[in-house]
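hey so i finaly got around to running the thing on DUF4371 domain-containing protein from Adiantum capillus-veneris. pasting the sequence first so u can double check i didnt mess up the copy paste, my clipboard has been acting weird all day
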Amino acid sequence: MDAFLLEGKEGIQNSMKRAENFKDEALFTPFRVAYHMAKKNYAFYGFTDMISLLQDCRVPYSTSLYNDDKACVEMVYCMGKCLMSSTLKKVSRSPFFGVLIDESNDISKHGHLIIYLSYLIDDCIPTYSFYGIVHVSDGTAKSIFNVVLDELKKNDFDLPKLIAFGSNGCSTMTGSENALAVSSVAKNSDIAITLEKLVNSIATHFNHSNKRLAELRITQEDLACPILRLEHTFDVRWLSRASAIGKVCSSLDTILMHTKEKAPSLFDDLSKFENIYCLFFLADILKGMSVVSKLFQKEFVDVTTVSAIIQKEINLIQQYYIDPPDVDENELILDTSGYSFLREYGPEKGFLFYLRGAIRGKKFFDIEIERDIFGMDLMCALEFQVSFPKKVITSLQERFVDNSILSKLGVLVPSQHPLLEKALRDYGKSEAKEIASFYGKMKSLEIINSAALTDEDDFISEFHSFKQQAAIRWVRFSLPDVATAIACNATWRDSYPNILIVCQIALVQ
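ok and heres what it spat out for the 3d tokens, dont ask me to read them lol
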């Protein structure tokens, strides 16, 4: 009898646990659905249908309430507040934090700021979190600064810990003249604007007609050309220019063959030698710039490498498009048809390299094009090839003008240290002094005052010891590796407190 009662009691308890678990699952179901819809950017009016589907599939759901789109909005709002609260706590525990902003316009053309926060978890792991979207009355720098400052004050941020600020090339924040290098130059070049319109017209011609698109693909297959879908360019996605122009250049022979019969007006514009040369030049330079841009879009970018990457790109642009190529005095200037040979500009195996093999006299492969026998169109194209890169270089130099101190932080990356002990002895002395001086002084911006972040003398002393330690144990370490090694080890943390602070500053950038 007792055993029976005990078994019955255990059965009741298990049933109650199952009921409780079912209740918990049923309670969380609508929140999971709302979270999924918000994350996937689905319209909230589909919330009711999603709940109905789950009920049909016998997913635990205990109430007929809170199953409409208004309930979905409320749940997303509550979850957003919880996530924001969690983020703010993490930021408050971080030794430093940064603010990243970008502009956005709604359908009414009202300006907004998208704000992200950069901070460290466990004093060494760089992390980025979405903060929110705020309205701005105008695009002046003062207005932007005040809006961001008010947001930080509203949530009681420790302003002296604000150590980094970045904007994603937004024209309303940095001025239209200082927008993303290639994008701003392209928008202020008549030739670039004309060619962009031509590329978009070509994409429209083919993509708005299944018949024409099929004919183009058949021609591409017959000529063993890559099957590429032509694209439009978009102002909000400047990298689209590289892809759109590159695809036109890769398919130019098939496009010329089609438009000569089907779209004479497009053919007339596209078959001009000056336009062809400039398109191939733009395809080359935009491809190079898009590679650089994608480097900076990675989850983590070592700020100590930014200066070297930009300078390398500037040097390549100068070498490929501005400096005249070496010319053999005995080399023929004109081809057999009396037209100028194209000089060896651009990277090897690039679009201009390909163009030199495709142009013969007045023909692009077997298609006759419009070309001036006196070379005036080539001169105009070469003038554009020189003026456009010069403006890109100037824009890059203006945009990355403040990276000198960040590039010097490379002396804290052991993988960049010289391997020979003799070379290591004097390595980084001048950089260490400049870093110590920069971060060892109080900084002030408007109402934000920051005390000296490091001790100058202690930093220089630590750096001398740090180099020796790095050569023994940390030879292949990157900047995050150094920060982790110091932050997570009490001995190293006590030995290199100033080195750790500068590493943390670099990781938040």
